[in-house]
User: Fold these one by one.
Assistant:
Number 1:
Amino acid sequence: MTDLPNIPLTSHHRVEVDGVNVFYREAGPSDAPVILLLHGFPTSSFQYRELIPRLADRYHVIAPDLPGFGFTEVPADRGYKYTFDSLAKTIFAFTQALKLTHYAMYVFDYGAPTGFRLALMAPERVTAILSQNGNAYEEGLGDAWQPIQRYWREPTLEHRNAIRTGLNLEGMRHEYSVGIPDPSLIKPEGYTLDAALLARPGNVDIQLDLFLDYANNVKLYPKFQEYFRTAKPPLLAVWGKFDPYFIPAGAEAFKKDIPNATVTFLPTGHFALETHLQEIAVAMREFLGEHVGKASHV
């Protein structure tokens, strides 16, 4: 009988925090250093399905679904206000419930302003930051933000509905393929699941509320940058250089505040994990091995 490789299994759990039923994926030794994977729009922890087992032999990997995304459930009577402050408050409560006293953070897209808020709330917990197209600088905002920036300036129904038209299956397929030299590499599972979850009653309006609130992330950029300068967490930016939303200047900007930051560009778009999973996993393992360590029994 041929032996199978010892690939860590990913388990799925729920926990009630902040009046929200948070769904999360988990793998790896319970005594290993923690990596918190924070997803972006329009995804969920599903985007990390192949990354998790590539890290979990050495690390305790935890990937929650943000409120409004994936399989996290927010009761209607909770009256949840979909802002990034709210998302961060819920995820902070999640880390409290799981007794996570120290963690490295992998932040992508919406996961970045969520994770950077966590860092402001408890800077002593953050052992390292891995930013994959997770922005914190105005120079990192690409031209693709123009329709949303117009919505920030004039939050009219017309501008809201202009964004609404792209929040469907075809729009999600487009989001995944932009900046990808070979779109045939994109597996359909991710954007198909995203579109199905977007199609739930009321979810599109949740997303539109978050698009509007993203302006408050930009206002917080100076505080995020002050945290980088003060705490100087080990930081690895792995960036799809053809991303039209968060352009390469945003990755390079980390070096202004964290001179020792490592910045790596990949020939892909926003959803870099879809095309460069192996390269990202290798870079993460090297970076984490240097700055965070690994499980004591490995």
Number 2:
Amino acid sequence: MTDTPEPAKRLLVRTWGCQMNVYDSARMADVLAPLGYGSTGELEGADMVVLNTCHIREKASEKVFSELGRLRLMKQARAAEGRRMIIAVAGCVAQAEGAAILERAPFVDIVLGPQATHRLPALVRRAEAGERALLDTEFPPEDKFDELPEATIPQGLTAFLTVQEGCDKFCSFCVVPYTRGAEYSRPAASVLAEARRLVAQGAREITLLGQNVNAYHGEGPDGSTWRLSRLIRALADIDGLARIRYTTSHPRDFMDEHGGDVELIAAHRAVPQLMPFLHLPVQSGSDAMLRAMNRRHTADDFLRIVDALREAQPDLALSSDFIVGHPGETEADFAATMALVRRVGFASAFSFKFSARPGTPAAELEMRVPEATKDARLLELQALLRDQQAAFNASLLGRVIPVLILEPGRHKGQMAGRSPWLQPVHAMLPPTLAGEIVPLRITAAHPNSLAAEATSATPLDAPAPAMPERAMPLLQAASA
């Protein structure tokens, strides 16, 4: 086996936020590879650092500026040694605050929005030639996916694939329509071609990504419009693709009366590769709050969707998003959220206090909920959600479940994998099982993972998988 030559220049991408940002970060590495940049997981020695940012969490921009302050000192030290270090800020904070970033941090070389990924090489060439303060936050008329290279760095056994971007929903609290633009769906042929390439590189599981992924309405090969359900059925025909997931969904796009993809519910029954786990944000159980949030669905709508999904796939587990303390939220509104959580039962969830995002409608609303009240409500909600997650994990004790084996675990002789419901699973297994889906018996349920053991049906002598080595270290993830 020959050693892989060292890249001429080293690229570090730090990623905040959602899986779509992780996908975009991988594509940045792809487009910069022809310029001689190879990915590194270490800041020390990096010739270029990209901060791929998220604007969802509170004080997101301040956390970016804090990171930039550290990079400024490193860039100055490099300059004193006669070496160059390019700093770029990408993603949703860049889109929302591009000019402000360059004014506050003039040492930043490049600021680009999430729709300009394919133009990053041209910006880097200009920065290498000595230009500074390069800003590209325009929503381009061309499809960025058409401009991205087909050749990609392997993601590994699990891969992300963006099929839809942008949002037309304009929820009161959300910046996505302003940072990612209007809804756009990639042509089905483009998605299928990328999926086949990912599988050829070793991917066994693909997660389809979109701000409103179940609003997908891409052009099909025959010129007709494909919804996500039809795309999933076509992906299921790809030999070697064992598991399919999709995130994030919107309840309205399941609803027939609003032109939703009702066949997507049937796909959970009919497509065995489609995993029985769904992230479906509801945000609140109060209809008054849902109207204030401009969610365009009711609590009853959400419950009817959940019931239909569970009828189609009885093993389905759900995750969701919740916001407490939206302006005007009363104790009765919060009680309605708690009642909905008890009614549904979630395997996992994300929950946050409301925080105003500049430029969003909710930022201008009066009737602010006191911080102490928001804190108390969030603690109460999170306690219930933790209990439900623990109960779901405990419900798997003694069950034999199919686990996709991914990589060595923390302990000698241990391998780590992924359950159908996204929990990490650890078991003592040979490393030759990497890439295999094997039956394991669950022996212990921890708060965020499961322990398992081999069964009589577990193959322990599988041949070593013929897979390409991962050519890129894991993109550094930063807490938002």
